[in-house]
């Protein structure tokens, strides 16, 4: 009896179903799910810079909105438009990259040690040595031209030769001093944040190069999730025949589709067994491969010898670096003067001699650090940084590894979910517009 009642109920339900509309709903929600995840990725990465219009008074209004709404790119600057979530959070990504990953990969001293300071010293000597005669001549002609011109050529050459002889030892002292004080001279956090802030396209490159395979899967699974979720939606819609149901259920489908897409990539961080099946975030399954890609980007574009040199000389602690190098140069100048030092002191006076020594030291500072900015040498040294970062990144616990990618956007994921909900509702309304044909004579309502 109960089976007969169930069969009768199903038969009666089937008679009321508009099957074309019923079958179309899962395909429709599948297409909408694909569009949601595809456009969601666009929202994540594009445009690199803010595109929109400035609205008078929007900044003041945004200041009193809930904090979540203040996070919408452009609103706090009075702009109505869009900037990709990832490039808009470039500085934040840099901060998290340091706190969660780079700080755990090694101290500034470890990075510097990987660059092999002895090789750096040899390169500095090789680049600096040809410039020394001109530098000595330039300083002496500026500080005491008459004395320098009056000195016999062999004596002037002897001074230059002694300076060149002292150069390897001086440069070794400088690179050693930098190594000793590197933790005070170099701040990776400031360096990385500043670089990411100025180059938001680099942050997009990190995401895409490291996780492009997973991002593509996320888009593909948008159709699968949307299709599967569309089956119960079709049953509910054809059971109650309420026009408001499809837009409302579209909100749920859109929200869940994006939620499942993010879960598919990042969760769970640790491998788990569910019904005998290994379950782990797709991104985590390729940790070793992703670590190699991440290390290459950081070593080639972020923590390079060239950028370390720029930071040491022109960063917030550049004055201290310059002073340290100049201090290391002064004893070398005394040694270079050798037995002439007494005569020079008498001829010029101690104060004048000290002035020449300081002038030479200051002139040498910039030239000493210039080889750090040699792009080809920097590329050669970056391989050592890449090896270090790759090794340490592979050793990271999965939870820390996934935070490297997700933390920068986690607080903004609600925008993607809201975008999915809005598109889901729009899809529901569109389906109603296409398939709700009750206004055609003889056609049953969808």
UniProtKB/TrEMBL annotation:
Keywords: Membrane, Transmembrane, Transmembrane helix
Keyword Metal-binding among UniProt keywords: no
Top-level taxon of the source organism: Bacteria
Ranges annotated as spanning the membrane: 20-45, 215-236, 248-266, 414-440
Protein name (record): DUF445 family protein
Native source organism of the sequence: Nocardioides albidus
Lineage: Bacteria, Bacillati, Actinomycetota, Actinomycetes, Propionibacteriales
